[in-house]
């Protein structure tokens, strides 16, 4: 490599330049410096076939800025260049990537194009990873974009689909990708994204390879891997269940051969209720219950009989019943003494807890998630009266953002990544102790993120809590919502429709269309929101009922959000102790609560 100054008209963009495709990049940040001082950092170039010409391997933005100065009529001097040796495409591509990664990181599609070019020149995945400081798994993930149709890569590069959707699309066959694109292009159709896409691809629950009891390497059915190459799933659920049930039968035969009285293979999806059963050893007639979950996971519950059988055994005076029927020995402490011990230990722990707020925070989070002892917390089910409303909420921007963070928290806590909630419910609550131990390992910022997710899951829709929290954190509905088909389907009141027309199109348009039917008014609103059919696009808009605080369009009332907001306002105004006075109580020698 050697350094030299080269005239601008002797330079062109090389095909190997990572940013060599597409329109010229934005160089507004470079122009002031290039105008006043020229190019200071050498471009990376290599000789072109034409005599005296060179291709720019790295430095397209600086080259573009120089040309912009030339078009402005400014003086342009020869550009400093570092000249690579001839003929080494791999070295040129590596130089381009290193140059660009050190500045503005290119999108993953650009990285994929460059990585593929490197692999084609003979570079291995490990060599590419070492050169650019990537983990090999990250390089494999980027290379996996090659499984996608070019249109999907273009949508991803343009930010029209998110990384979770792309990750799941790498599981799809080419025909599935084409079908998904057809849904994406059809404005009237529901297009699954994020984790909903996985269920769409597999026709229901995606079954992870890790749940297989059989030899996966010998499995004849299809197996697909996601974008990261870490999670693998069975492409054919019927083939999986045939192999899985065969493996369960083999395990059943092994249990029977080992001396168990019976092996009960439960119906798929049926949960084993331990509280309806009692432990019984192999010699006491205990059975093995095989719980087969829809996810493909199989759990073997060894040594159980039903509660009725346990009672009958006790009354019959044989086997395990003898042990149960024996007169229990006198306990070490009496009932009142047990209460005395428990109450004093309880008092001591909660007194000490006052000085350990970090522990209290984690205990509270674990209590909410596990539903321990005195705590009973329900998960907001987000029940909708109509299917289209449920679909609208499930696919909205806010729900997608919340679900993305929830799945990250599931991973942090070691829960099933396909679990619908962090917060336990019903019979599916995690034990308190290991959950609390895990929370104690995590730093405060992470615990606070977990608490935020749990709070969101247990926040009742339409409640005063939603109103108060939304007001306090200044929730801006413009960022999270836009009018969709489900909204327009439920919008039927002409007085309200006219008021909305006045908001989005102006009072004159509303007055001119005062006699129009609801369908025409909805079309005007839609055209104004989208800027179509000759109407000027209105500013981002949300209905008054959805804003914080909400208001009604008429005096007729009946708006739940407005009622909740009114209750919040009344409760605050009727508060016995104003919030501003809480910290200024009577003089005392006691330390403040925060201490």
State the distance separating the first and last CA atoms: 65 Å
Q: Can you give the mean pLDDT?
A: 77
Low-confidence stretches: 101-105, 318-326, 579-595
Sheet with the most strands, sense and barrel status: 5 strands, mixed
Order the strands across the largest sheet as they lie in space: 1-5-3-4-2
What does this structure look like?
This protein is of the alpha/beta class. It folds into five domains: 2-106, Alpha-Beta Complex (Conserved hypothetical protein from pyrococcus furiosus pfu- 392566-001, ParB domain), CATH 3.90.1530; 148-204; 238-325, no CATH class; 339-461, no CATH class; 478-573, no CATH class. Helix content is 46%, strand content 8%. The chain has helices at 31-37, 60-71, 89-101, 108-120, 125-132, 136-143, 150-157, 163-169, 174-185, 194-202, 237-257, 307-316, 320-325, 335-353, 357-370, 387-394, 397-413, 432-441, 444-457, 464-472, 485-490, 494-505, 507-512, 518-530, 560-573, and strands at residues 2-6, 11-13, 43-47, 54-58, 79-83, 223-225, 232-234, 263-265, 277-279, 287-292, 298-306. Strand 10 and strand 11 form a beta hairpin. It starts with a strand and ends in a 22-residue tail after the last helix.
Describe what is shown at a glance.
With 595 residues, the chain is of the alpha/beta class. It has 25 helices and 11 strands.
Walk me through the topology.
Layout: E1 2-6, E2 11-13, H1 31-37, E3 43-47, E4 54-58, H2 60-71, E5 79-83, H3 89-101, H4 108-120, H5 125-132, H6 136-143, H7 150-157, H8 163-169, H9 174-185, H10 194-202, E6 223-225, E7 232-234, H11 237-257, E8 263-265, E9 277-279, E10 287-292, E11 298-306, H12 307-316, H13 320-325, H14 335-353, H15 357-370, H16 387-394, H17 397-413, H18 432-441, H19 444-457, H20 464-472, H21 485-490, H22 494-505, H23 507-512, H24 518-530, H25 560-573
Parallel strand pairs: 2-4, 3-5, 8-10
Antiparallel strand pairs: 1-5, 3-4, 6-7, 9-11, 10-11
Helix pairs in contact: 3-4, 5-6, 8-10, 15-18, 15-19, 17-19, 22-24
């Amino acid at each position: 490599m050697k350094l030299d100054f080269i005239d601008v008209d002797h330079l062109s963009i090389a095909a190997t330049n990572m940013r060599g495709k597409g329109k010229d990049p934005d160089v507004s940040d470079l122009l002031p410096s290039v105008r006043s001082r020229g190019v200071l950092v050498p471009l990376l170039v290599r000789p072109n076939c034409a005599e005296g010409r060179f291709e720019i391997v790295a430095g397209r933005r600086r080259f573009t800025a120089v040309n912009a100065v030339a078009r402005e009529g400014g003086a342009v001097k020869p550009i400093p260049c570092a000249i690579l040796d001839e003929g080494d495409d791999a070295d040129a591509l590596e130089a381009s990537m290193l140059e660009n990664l050190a500045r503005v990181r290119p999108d993953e599609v650009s990285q994929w194009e460059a990585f593929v070019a490197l692999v084609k020149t003979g570079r291995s995945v490990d060599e590419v990873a070492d050169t650019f400081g990537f983990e090999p798994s990250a390089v494999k993930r980027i290379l996996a974009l090659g499984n996608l149709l070019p249109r999907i890569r273009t949508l991803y590069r343009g930010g029209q689909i998110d990384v979770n959707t792309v990750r799941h699309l790498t599981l799809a066959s080419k025909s599935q990708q084409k079908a998904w694109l057809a849904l994406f292009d059809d404005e009237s159709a529901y297009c699954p994204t994020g984790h909903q896409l996985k269920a769409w691809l597999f026709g229901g629950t995606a079954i992870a390879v890790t749940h297989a009891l059989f030899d996966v390497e010998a499995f004849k059915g299809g197996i697909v891997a996601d974008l990261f190459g870490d999670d693998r799933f069975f492409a054919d659920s019927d083939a999986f269940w045939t192999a899985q049930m065969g493996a369960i039968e083999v395990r059943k035969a092994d249990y029977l051969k080992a001396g168990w009285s019976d092996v009960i293979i439960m119906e798929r999806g049926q949960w084993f209720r331990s509280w309806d059963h009692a432990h019984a050893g192999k010699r006491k007639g205990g059975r093995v219950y095989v719980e087969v979950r829809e996810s493909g996971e199989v759990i073997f519950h060894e040594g159980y009989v039903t509660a009725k059988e346990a009672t009958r055994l006790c009354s019959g005076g044989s086997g395990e019943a003898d042990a149960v029927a024996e007169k229990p020995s006198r306990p070490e402490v009496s009932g009142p003494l047990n209460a005395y011990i428990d109450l004093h230990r309880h008092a001591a722990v909660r007194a000490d807890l006052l000085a350990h707020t970090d522990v209290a925070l984690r205990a509270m989070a674990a209590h909410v998630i596990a539903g321990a002892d005195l705590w009973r917390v329900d998960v907001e089910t987000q029940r909708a009266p109509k299917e289209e409303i449920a679909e609208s909420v499930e696919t909205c921007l806010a729900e997608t953002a919340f679900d993305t963070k929830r799945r990250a928290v599931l991973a942090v806590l070691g829960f099933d990544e396909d679990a619908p909630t962090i917060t336990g419910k019903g019979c599916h609550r995690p034990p308190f102790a290991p959950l609390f131990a895990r929370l104690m390992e995590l730093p405060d910022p992470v615990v606070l993120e977990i608490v935020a997710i749990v709070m969101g899951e247990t926040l009742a829709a339409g409640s005063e809590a939603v109103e108060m929290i939304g007001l306090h954190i200044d929730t801006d509905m413009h960022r999270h919502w836009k009018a969709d088909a489900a909204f327009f389907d439920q919008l039927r009141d002409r007085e309200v429709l006219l008021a909305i027309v006045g908001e989005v199109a102006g009072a004159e348009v509303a007055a001119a269309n005062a006699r129009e039917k609801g369908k025409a008014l909805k079309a005007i609103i839609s055209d104004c929101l989208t800027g179509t059919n000759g109407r000027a696009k209105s500013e981002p808009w949300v209905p008054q009922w959805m804003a914080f605080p909400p208001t009604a369009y008429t005096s007729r009332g009946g708006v739940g959000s407005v009622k909740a907001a009114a209750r919040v306002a009344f409760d605050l105004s009727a508060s016995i102790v104003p919030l501003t006075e809480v910290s200024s109580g009577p003089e005392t020698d006691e330390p403040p609560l925060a201490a």
